[in-house]
């Protein structure tokens, strides 16, 4: 999207895993549906019900989650962080309006499943709540962390407490 800044590179790992899971589970759903076609009466009804539930839980839900992850885009500019979902600007927080920055690590899962998250709080230009930028959605947090590093240097009160400063410095050092 024009004017929103640099897009953080998307992380396709979870989308591919969900797509493969949906494909993998589509096989037993089709087998159950084929078996239901050969049945009659209550056995057919039960088989169709089972096929429908399996299709919903094991095929449709993973596809919807994959679509949700793939449609979320994060942009960083000199002025703001923006979240675009489905082509529509959902959240935007100006750096000058930011009131708090939190960095969290939820375990060490390696490169396959990194768990770094950055929470940005303050009055939003667009949307509401707190902006979450997670390695679930993006491949690299470096552009955001570089911009936040400049903001934190100018306004150290954005990191509330020594623990927050330590987490932030660790994220800056280890950012991909």
TrEMBL record:
Keywords: Membrane, Transmembrane, Transmembrane helix
Residues that span the membrane, as ranges: 14-33, 45-65
Name of the molecule in the record: DUF304 domain-containing protein
Lineage: unclassified sequences, metagenomes
